[in-house]
Specification:
This protein has 79 residues and is mainly β. Helix content is 0%, strand content 23%. It contains no helices and 4 strands.
């Protein structure tokens, strides 16, 4: 598998904490969306690590097609 599976056609709103690291699922197979659960091990795709620069709400990509991984850039609107 070299192309990510669309997990959902909308972003995931997540309250992140400053300094905490988040492993965003880039393959779309995780059962703990939008975060990695290790399901990528059967693919060539690896998770993207995001370190929160401040505590805030962020929108993590759900379609896995974003050009600004791991955050949503609106690409889901074209699927």
């Amino acid at each position: 598998m070299t192309k990510a599976k669309v997990a959902q056609k909308s972003p995931y709103k997540v309250a992140v904490e400053e300094g905490k690291k988040y492993a965003w699922c880039a393959c779309g197979l995780s059962t703990k969306q939008p975060f990695c659960d290790g399901s990528h091990k059967i693919t060539d795709i690896r998770p993207v690590i995001h370190t929160a620069s401040k505590s805030e709400d962020l929108y993590f990509c759900g379609c896995k097609q974003t050009g600004s991984a791991p955050l949503c850039d609106g690409t889901h609107n074209t699927l």
